[in-house]
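User: structure tokens for this one?
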Amino acid sequence: MDVAEKKIENWTLELNKKIIYEAQPRQNYFHESEADETLYGGSAGGGKTKAIIGDAIAFCVENPKVRVAIFRRTYPELEKSIIYEFRNTLPFWSYKYNDSKKTAIFSNQSIIEFNYCESEKDVYRYQSAEYDRIYFDELTHFTEFQYKYLLSRLRTTKKDIFPQVKSGTNPGNIGHAWVKKRFISGAKPEQQIERFDKETKTRFTTIFIPAKVWDNKYIIDNDPGYIDKLKRLPEDERRALLEGDWEVFAGQYFKEWRSDLHIIDYFDYDLEDCKKIVTFDWGYASWGTAIWLAVCPENKFGVQRVYQYREISQRKRNPEGWAEDMLVFFKIESIEFLVLPHDCFASEYGQRSIAETFKYIFNKNKMKINIVSGDTLTKGARLNRAAMTHQNLALADDGKPYLQIHRKCSKTIENLPMLIHDKNNPEDVEKCDIDHWYDALSMGLVKIYRTWKINSSPTKKTKKIYLGRKTLPIDRKTGEYITPPLEKIFERIKHKKVRKSLE
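Assistant:
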């Protein structure tokens, strides 16, 4: 049954006949949800954190000996929002708080854990945990891997308990795409629907309950100027945080990304005619990835395009295993070089470095692979890589991006558009758990440019016609070639206005 079809009564929490929490209309739907997974929110100021705290307290008070977890991405966020809100909602004498463990224990032995999960590997701290209910505040701050792994900790041995996960969030940040896909795409607001997980072949129900700042009477009554602050934000941020619009991505770093242009199913050139390299980013507990790039010959527009045509992404694979995996492809196609980040050349405790291990395995198999270091250490390296990625995602003179990625490179396609600006340095990409594909790709693009200086001449965006070449300007809107009238060409030649172009 949809939540909207139910008769929702005003939802309150009382302590000694004093109301400590009174749900607002949109929050009522959140509390009454019967879906396996519930998402509440949209715009800033919709009362997400308050709803999570109220729901968690009620669940613990009504059900003895249950264990609840509330997650934020980082500890400072946890301390400043969730823990602060909880301790301001309940009087201190109504529960026992363990500051070192960050837990609140009620008289009926129910427990709320206040947890954080900053990196993907942090999920393993909860490997043996068991929760009757889990909450996520600002769900889009989490990766899909973190969410799914922590979801596996949701189980109960209590007969009358229905395990649920409930979350609140705004649009944007690194989890925007997967949260939108899991909760919003294909569903109407307040409509509980059944979804199918292709990976696990399991079914589950979700519901999205939108809430905007206008639904929060406490802000409207006490801080009406807050809405004006949201209205003054840049357009993307305003649409996301004021209007709760999931079609924009506030904070997105590579705004030039276009799936219809950057993702392709075939190439204009045979790979045999291209210079090929492999670029690698090491990871063990987190993702490691190897990316194959092909540099095409210059086309009739003077453009040398880069194709990403293969990727391997793995966890918990040692250097020997990685070398053997890459060897499978090196035996059937040649590459110019293999690019590794600087830390792959460092030896620890007298053992071989990753670069030395790769070289040993390659030589053992009689494969001579040129291993080179990518620029990941020098001052300005990160900004150089970001600028090079921007440049390659931009449109060339032929109306296509300088960089195109084959559809099978799913991890790069999934994660590259989700990267956001660094909070402390907006010119840089935020370091996060999904940046491995960007790190490898950008390192390879910089190495390609410094090796072959491709596309180094200024982009010709004029409406001049260059006689003697096959290139004609393209209308950016229609994609059609622009052919000036012949009389104009002859007139310009007559007055020698194009002599420099002909030289």
